[in-house]
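I'm stuck. Please check this protein.
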Amino acid sequence: MSIRFIHLADIHYDRENQDAAAKSIEAAIEAGTRERIDFWTLAGDLFNRGIQNSAVGGFPRLLDLVAHMLEVAPIYAVSGTVTHDLAGCYEALQKMGGFMLLTADGAAYGMTKAGEKYMVLGLPEAGKEWFLAGADGLSAEEANEKVKAGMRSILLGLGAKRAEHPEMPAVMLYHGAIVGAEMANGQLVEGGISIGREDLALVGADYYALGHIHLRQQIPGLPAWYSGSAYPVNWGELDQKGCNLVEIDLSVIDAGPVSDRATVTALPFPHAPRKKIVVDWAATDSPYFTAEDVDGFQAWLLIRKPKDALLDTEFVESNLALNGALPGSRVTVETIPTETVRAAEITEKHHLREKAIVYAEASGEAAPVESVLAKADTLERAAESRGAGQGAYIRLRKLRLRGAIGIWKGQRQDEIELDFDGFDPGLIALIGETGAGKTTL
């Protein structure tokens, strides 16, 4: 005998991404029907941001997709990151029969199609405010220790609930970071609100359905898996997206806190993996790629070139498509900055005229003509008359920001430029909806 379920996480459904998310959910429904699963687990971040209850917003479509999932099996879920799963976003789903949103202070029980009982535990993503309410004046180290102790207490409580029914197979849902897990960008989880593998093992679950990290992976030594995101959320995610089909064999006797009864199978979603190709304009002959490089991928070709080098990006994009790159592929250009010449003597000169002469000599350029030097004198006198020469200060007049993930996620732009000279004097406010890129800026 066994129980079978599908582990989903990080669907990030919103108006803009509803088609990609729907394809993944539909593929999961097809697999769940075929495999005759007993239930679904949804480990947080079903939503990407707030969505309107309209056809354009996509909420009725999401309700329809969830209804189809519930026709297959019940759904157990936990809420995710507060900026994605906004307060109250699951209320309408909870009114649908069979959709259960778990909290850290309870357990849900169910029965398989074959009549076997099971239990499901849940831990939504925790914020520091959970543990630090009323604890003012703590140092950063003291605050982190208090958070760790609070998380450990919650996990011990869940372990106690699991111990009440050792005869039942148990699954735990958690949205959050596990120390040592690998991020999509190759970094490892180290600090913040994260829990250790040993702490997670205190629960004694047969399987841990994890969410929050978008790269599919197993936590070493535990039947704990991140299923990964439902579709590539950004260009740092180059893995094949999918979900986990999990089977817990009830004939295997669990002999300890780390169960080995779960078998996990990856189910791919219909989203081609992405590939990033970086080429140097000066060191590479055109074309910059082969059909083998891009065929069957959503390809991002990043070309690094000098500022004055000419490049027909539309022609390169057409070549991507001709060589089998999938729709959604793109070509971007990164300008190689001109090397700045530095000369120690410049810092020893006190006047702009003298600095200009030293710079020209260090750069191997012709000495500035007298008219240029006279202009330097004029600018210097004008600055001194405004008090600019009586103490150093910096005024930000123009900002160009390139390659920020937060800007790409919120604005779908690789680069933004702000010219502050175009604003009237006074306070400048950044206004935008959640996820627009304000914090990144």
